[in-house]
């Protein structure tokens, strides 16, 4: 894992003390809310529906058991005993008191964590494939490059007041687990035909009220040019991105309005000026960062050792969990285990302090003290010996986090929605809970197969509904909660923006609507087809005909 | 429809409602009920003063109704603010005694 150097330590400590002074001035009445708001947002502090909310960054989703224990302590000491993992590899605390936030930040700094740039119009927490460094199909560990961008972007003086927020995501595999095509800049680490390492740079993706897929700005950028090239993109955006209308201020609108070719011309011209400047990455610096992500020392183990295979054979529930939640590790004899934070009827992404403590202990026992947070609001233990999987699974069973549903219909992304969020127009979490209860039967979930359900409580789309195989958008219809359904979206390598199927559906009928849609899929599918494949083959019509034959109450 | 005035407490961020003695209650049951335009304008003016004094943040009025002897906001957004997240009923403060600050 990356370890802070003296610059990182000094920077985070300095920022904490700055914010302590700002909070003191606010509490003393020397700063108005209008003056304080941009300052608190730069430190990840929102004022939500019920209370303040603090968003803590987990860069590229990698963190340690010690860090998770600290998060548990903070949840207990300053909050209401739980935290919420988000779709951007952050964790949110929903109930901090303003006067406590500087102390929380100081405690986070003790374990090399912070809330810098988790909000505001700046470059946000850099995200990456949660399996980076351990998955066999990757070209390189994308976290090396995400960390380089994190360092470059942290408090970058030129990019503190961008037209709007700016999000990076990294992947190094043909399977996109980081939704890179829906970020302001999506980076795919790849090798060219000569075998040299570099990047495909995609720009202008995003969700929100104007969902767009990123377009490729450069097919192959040699590794040493990463920072100079993205600095050129940010400079062009910072200069000509719209500031007159916040809904048109993201770079996706610039890409849309200028066209990718014209934007490319502007970026290339800027890049020519700076490509051989100090931003050119020295090889020794790349090597230094790479060392932080060097693989741990693994034991020489064989795949599918008898003890592991015997447990799979003897215990159906364990075998099922291995089938859904365990992925092949690049090191033989090891495995990557997803801890589903989606128990039946649970709140997606919520973890209590007690559960955090248990999971931290499990990370120490079974995963060399390392964890990952996923954009799908789950956790991952990246270095588990296959022979330890049964003990891990048993321990997860005890805390209710052994649900074998990774990638299935109950593995739902849901934004906090109107249960917490000041922007929301409807709730998200209770709908996710009801869907997971209705489809609790594991045999049925497995039969339905891969299914990405994503729920947003407003048009800002934090719940990624545009890219759900089935997406739900909560809307307010004359003071009642209704849900607009989209089909056919995907945030993965087969990326697509979903299509709205028809008028929004009343809250109490949404789960029945799910049944209907799943029923259509099951009757239409051919051998081996996922829901998404069937939808793409047969189109919207059969789903629409079944959903709106007049039997469902729909909004006018 | 009668109104009450709500905001978030500066220090805790918690939802609060203006009382008739200029204090703020964490329960909507303790709120001052404003029944006409004139009392609403007066209430808002006092609330703005509290905001200027940096006691509360984001002052605005909401509509309420009386159901079963209890004050209830009419809009579901405000019912969620009054009762806390629907997924955490244990955090609701509305059944507690009115806690003034």
The Cα radius of gyration of chain B reads 13 Å
Number of helices of chain B: 2
**Pair with the biggest interface:** A-B, 30 and 24 residues
Strand order of the largest sheet of chain B: 3-2-1-4-5
Mean pLDDT of chain A: 96
Main beta sheet of chain B, described?
5 strands, antiparallel
Cα shape of chain B: globular
Q: What is the beta-strand fraction of chain A?
A: 15-25%
Q: Portion of residues in helices of chain A?
A: 25-40%
Question: Count the strands of chain B?
Answer: 5
Sheet with the most strands of chain A?
6 strands, mixed
Structure write-up:
The complex is a heterodimer of chains A (556) and B (101). Chain A has 18 helices and 21 strands. Chain A has 556 residues and is α+β, with helices and mostly antiparallel strands. In chain A, strand 8 (185-191) and strand 9 (197-203) form a beta hairpin. Chain A starts with 5 loop residues before the first helix and ends in a 9-residue tail after the last helix. Chain B is an alpha+beta fold. In chain B, strand 4 and strand 5 (70-73) form a beta hairpin. The chains are: A alpha+beta (556), B alpha+beta (101). The A-B interface holds A 26-27, 29, 32-33, 47-52, 80, 94-99, 347, 418-420, 424, 427, 429-430, 433, 479-481 and B 8, 10-15, 51, 53-54, 57-58, 74-77, 80-81, 84-88, 91.
């Amino acid at each position: 894992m990356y370890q802070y150097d003296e610059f990182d330590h000094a920077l985070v400590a300095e920022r904490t003390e700055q914010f302590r002074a700002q909070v003191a001035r606010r509490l003393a009445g020397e700063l108005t809310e209008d003056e304080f708001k941009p300052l608190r947002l730069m430190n990840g502090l929102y004022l939500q529906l019920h209370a303040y909310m603090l968003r803590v960054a987990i860069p590229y989703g990698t963190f340690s058991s010690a860090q998770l224990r600290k998060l548990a302590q903070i949840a207990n000491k300053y909050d209401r005993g739980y935290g919420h993992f988000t779709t951007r590899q952050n964790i949110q605390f929903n109930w901090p008191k303003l006067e406590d936030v500087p102390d929380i930040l100081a405690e986070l700094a003790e374990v090399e964590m912070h809330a810098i740039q988790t909000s505001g119009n700046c470059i946000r927490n850099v995200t990456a494939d949660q399996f980076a460094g351990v998955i066999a199909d990757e070209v390189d560990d994308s976290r090396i490059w995400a960390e380089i961008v994190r360092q470059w972007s942290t408090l970058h003086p030129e990019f503190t007041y961008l037209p709007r927020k700016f999000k990076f995501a990294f992947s190094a595999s043909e399977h996109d687990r980081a939704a890179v095509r829906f970020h302001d800049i999506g980076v795919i680490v790849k090798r060219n035909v000569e075998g040299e390492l570099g990047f495909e740079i995609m720009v202008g993706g995003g969700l929100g009220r104007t969902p767009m897929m990123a377009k490729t700005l450069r097919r192959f950028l040699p590794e040493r040019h990463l920072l100079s090239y993205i600095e050129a993109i940010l400079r062009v955006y910072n200069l000509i991105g719209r500031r007159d209308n916040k809904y048109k201020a993201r770079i996706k609108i610039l890409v849309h309005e200028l066209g990718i070719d014209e934007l490319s011309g502007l970026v290339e011209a800027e890049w020519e000026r700076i490509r051989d400047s100090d931003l050119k990455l020295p090889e020794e610096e790349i090597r230094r960062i790479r060392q932080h992500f060097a693989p741990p020392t693994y034991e020489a183990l064989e795949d599918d050792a008898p003890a592991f295979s015997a447990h799979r054979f003897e215990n159906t529930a364990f075998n099922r969990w291995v089938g859904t939640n365990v992925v092949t590790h690049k090191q033989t004899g090891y495995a990557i285990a997803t801890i589903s934070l989606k128990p039946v009827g649970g709140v997606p992404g919520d973890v209590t302090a007690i559960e955090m403590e248990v999971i931290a202990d499990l990370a120490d026992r079974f995963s060399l003290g390392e964890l990952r947070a996923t954009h799908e609001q789950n956790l991952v233990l990246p270095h588990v010996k296959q022979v330890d999987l049964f003990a891990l699974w048993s321990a997860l069973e005890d805390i209710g986090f052994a649900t074998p549903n990774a990638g299935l219909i109950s593995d739902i992304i849901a934004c906090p929605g109107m249960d917490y969020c000041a922007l929301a127009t409807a709730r998200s979490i209770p709908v996710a809970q009801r869907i997971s209860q209705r489809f609790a039967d594991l045999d049925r979930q497995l039969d339905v197969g891969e299914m990405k359900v994503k729920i947003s409580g407003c048009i800002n789309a934090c719940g990624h509904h545009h890219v759900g195989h089935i997406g739900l958008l909560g809307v307010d219809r004359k003071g009642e909660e209704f849900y607009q359904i989209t089909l056919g979206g995907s945030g993965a390598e087969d990326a697509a923006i979903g299509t709205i199927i028809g008028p929004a559906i009343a809250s109490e009928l949404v789960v029945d609507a799910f049944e209907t849609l799943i029923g259509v899929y099951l009757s239409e599918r051919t051998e081996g087809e996922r829901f998404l494949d069937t939808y793409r083959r047969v189109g919207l019509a059969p789903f629409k005909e079944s959903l709106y034959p007049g039997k469902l109450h729909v909004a006018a | 429809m009668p109104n009450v005035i709500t905001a978030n407490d500066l220090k805790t961020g918690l939802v609060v409602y203006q009382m008739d003695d200029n204090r703020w209650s964490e329960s909507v049951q303790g709120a001052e009920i404003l029944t006409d335009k004139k009392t609403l304008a007066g209430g808002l003016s006092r609330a703005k003063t509290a905001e200027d004094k940096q006691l509360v943040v984001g002052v605005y009025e909401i509509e309420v109704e009386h159901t079963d002897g209890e004050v209830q906001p009419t809009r579901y957004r405000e019912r969620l603010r009054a009762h806390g997240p629907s997924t955490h009923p244990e955090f609701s403060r509305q059944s507690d005694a009115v806690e003034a600050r």
